[in-house]
């Protein structure tokens, strides 16, 4: 792996006379340029790339970073409580306020500083290693400089310069050029390694390709080369998997992550704990590459205790009065500075003890003064918005597809992105088509045996729902096509109701902190909407305040439309009284509910209600009008559109980092 990483470094700084088309079109298994051959040489392949790029008028983009007084902080509350169904509503207003107006609500929370006053320079082409124990701010620092700032805040006094490009421009128009590779590998488990890396290569494919090379050939060749470099060519047809789908090993999955980051072609990459999951042999090889690091940043409890050449780091701490034990490697010695039990001070030396002492010693060192002079020179050489920024924008446009906006962070056009995502979605569906296909030997007989019992279990639904609301008949008293029109309207109502439920849940997910919380919120609001939709109690029986909830509930309009469509304009036919009962005994409770009176309360046959001759009378008692059914359908669609707009707005305001808006 040491050779592979050094090879990738050499891509942007070497060139040969190898024709660019030959590099991508070589089919000779004995050629060092063919990743499928046994004689493939990654260094030779890398050396053949720059010359071909120059022939196409392309130049590799290079990005450095200068940061000064970088401070990152977050917010927390002094006290918290366990969320339950009863008290989660107490935290809902504060949660929404923090997501929609983070600055206004920050004054009521405790500020927690993580990295404090960091300074440093990472020149284009350099590699910097960030060392520190867990909790020292290594991951937070990498997220801060890579733009992955969801949940953290950057101090306004912090200075960023990506070789003349401002922090805002880099993380909006060029956010694909500075990436953060997290230590946890997250993939679509059903996709194969080859499909995963093909998608990564296609998403960053440049506009100008070598002559005679198609888009598919270019992406597949880069995929094969990267897999050969990282030793995972044998997994091309193996699913990536996850904790539940066991396919490739943990070490191979980590190498897939590194390969995917390589295929992103991002000139500035931040790798967080890249040795996690690697097997012992590859982890040792990866650690050996520390000699390639030109810069080193040492952290201790959120303080910067050293930044400078990696070769000078050991000497700096030795000069502070610490001793490097025999057989201890330089990285272990540097990390031991953050562990009081591991660092060994020399006898008679007054050495720093706490993180503040180390930070103060660093601020007073000659290395820190030299770093400040270098930072000021970097600012003068690469001013914000200067010639370097203009050149970078022009280079980016040569990579983007035709018709793509210069301010867009994407290389592909919108149609190309849609086609690529559709291809990946189809591959995901094809990899997991469903139980009827991938396991027919057991699921087929089980389905046949369960069909009868499921049908039997659905009978209470028909008895308790379909018949009372009139879904068992056409509910039409007139001839012609009214039955067909009512059936069509009923179908539209069911479809609209399902859309409303789906979009309402998505709205809750967009504004809630987690999917579990969103589910609790959606269930609570849905039950409350059902209570005040006119089914449990008619509108005229509700107090004045609850009438507002009845008018605001979308279920009110849905129930009204369903009842009017299924029951309106029907002539009421009253069944005769049961044996031993009079009409008064039989229909007394009914008359008390809907009003009116019986023509003959003592009769035992031909029970006649003088007011309720048709179903419209009954429907009016619960506030349902037959003429408002299409209006109710339109109101339901208004609620659906409100949910869609609210979900998009909530996602944009609460989940999209402010640097990317």
From TrEMBL:
Claim: NAD is one of the keywords in the record: no
Intracellular or extracellular location(s): Membrane
Polar residues bias (residue ranges): 1-29
Xref: PANTHER family: ATP-BINDING CASSETTE TRANSPORTER
Signal peptide extent: none
SUPFAM superfamilies reported in the protein's UniProt record: P-loop containing nucleoside triphosphate hydrolases (SSF52540)
The keyword Hydrolase is annotated on this UniProt entry: yes
Domain ABC transporter: 95-345
Source species of the chain: Aspergillus ellipticus CBS 707.79
Molecular function in Gene Ontology: ABC-type transporter activity; ATP binding; ATP hydrolysis activity
Pfam families named in the record: ABC2_membrane, ABC_tran, ABC_trans_N
GO cellular component: membrane
Keywords assigned: Hydrolase, Membrane, Transmembrane, Transmembrane helix, Transport
Membrane topology: Multi-pass membrane protein
Protein name per the record: P-loop containing nucleoside triphosphate hydrolase protein
């Amino acid at each position: 792996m040491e050779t592979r990483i050094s090879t990738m470094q050499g891509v942007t700084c070497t060139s040969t006379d190898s024709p660019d088309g030959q590099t991508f079109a070589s089919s000779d298994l004995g050629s060092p340029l063919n990743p499928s051959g046994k004689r493939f040489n990654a260094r030779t392949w890398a050396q053949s790339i720059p010359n071909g790029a120059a022939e196409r008028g392309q130049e590799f983009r290079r990005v450095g970073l200068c940061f000064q007084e970088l401070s990152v902080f977050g917010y927390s509350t002094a006290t918290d409580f366990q969320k339950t169904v009863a008290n989660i509503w107490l935290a809902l207003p504060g949660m929404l306020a923090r997501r929609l107006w983070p600055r206004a609500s920050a004054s009521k929370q405790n500020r927690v500083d993580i990295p404090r006053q960091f300074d440093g320079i990472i020149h284009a082409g350099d590699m910097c290693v960030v060392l520190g124990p867990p909790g020292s701010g290594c991951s937070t620092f990498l997220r801060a400089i890579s733009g992955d700032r969801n949940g953290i805040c950057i101090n306004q006094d912090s200075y960023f310069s990506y070789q003349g490009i401002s922090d805002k421009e880099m993380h909006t128009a060029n956010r694909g050029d500075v990436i953060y590779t997290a230590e946890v590998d997250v993939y679509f488990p059903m996709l194969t390694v080859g499909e995963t890396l093909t998608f990564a290569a296609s998403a960053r494919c440049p506009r100008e390709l070598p002559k005679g090379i198609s888009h598919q050939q270019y992406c597949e060749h880069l995929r094969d080369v990267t897999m050969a470099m990282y030793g995972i060519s044998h997994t091309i047809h193996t699913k990536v998997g996850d904790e539940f789908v066991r396919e490739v090993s943990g070490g191979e999955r980590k190498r897939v992550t590194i390969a995917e980051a390589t295929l992103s072609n991002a000139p500035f990459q931040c790798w967080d704990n890249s040795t996690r999951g690697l097997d012992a042999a590859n982890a040792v090889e990866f650690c050996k590459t520390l000699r390639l690091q030109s810069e080193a940043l040492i952290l201790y409890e959120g303080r910067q205790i050293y930044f400078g050449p990696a070769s000078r780091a050991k000497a700096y701490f030795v000069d502070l009065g610490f001793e490097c034990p025999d057989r201890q490697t330089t990285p272990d010695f540097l990390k031991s500075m953050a562990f009081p039990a591991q660092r060994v001070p020399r006898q008679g030396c007054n050495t720093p003890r706490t993180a503040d002492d180390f930070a103060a010693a660093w601020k007073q060192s000659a290395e820190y003064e030299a770093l400040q002079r270098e930072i000021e020179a970097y600012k003068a050489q690469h001013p914000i918005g200067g010639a370097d920024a203009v050149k970078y924008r022009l280079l980016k446009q040569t990579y983007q597809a035709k018709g793509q906006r210069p301010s867009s962070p994407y290389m592909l056009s919108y149609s190309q992105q849609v086609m690529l995502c559709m291809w990946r979605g189809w591959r995901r569906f094809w990899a997991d088509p469903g139980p009827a296909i991938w396991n027919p030997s057991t699921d087929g007989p089980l389905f046949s045996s369960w069909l009868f019992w499921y049908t039997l279990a659905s009978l209470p639904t028909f008895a308790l729902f379909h018949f009372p609301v009139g879904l068992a008949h056409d509910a039409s008293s007139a001839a012609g096509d009214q039955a067909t029109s009512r059936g069509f309207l009923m179908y539209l109502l069911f479809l609209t109701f399902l859309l409303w439920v789906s979009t309402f849940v998505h709205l809750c997910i967009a504004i809630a902190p987690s999917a579990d919380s969103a589910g609790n919120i959606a269930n609570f609001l849905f039950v409350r909407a059902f209570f005040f939709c006119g089914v449990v109690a008619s509108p005229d029986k509700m107090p004045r305040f609850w009438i507002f909830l009845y008018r605001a509930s979308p279920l009110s309009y849905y129930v009204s439309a369903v009842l009017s469509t299924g029951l309106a304009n029907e002539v009421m036919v009253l069944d005769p009284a049961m044996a031993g009962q009079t009409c008064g005994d039989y229909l007394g409770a009914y008359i008390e509910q809907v009003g009116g009176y019986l023509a003959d309360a003592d009769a035992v046959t031909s029970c006649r209600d003088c007011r309720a001759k048709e179903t419209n009378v009954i429907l009016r008692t619960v506030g349902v009008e037959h003429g408002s059914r299409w209006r109710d359908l339109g109101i339901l669609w208004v609620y659906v559109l409100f949910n869609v707009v609210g979900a998009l707005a909530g996602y944009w305001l609460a989940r999209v980092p402010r640097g990317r808006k």
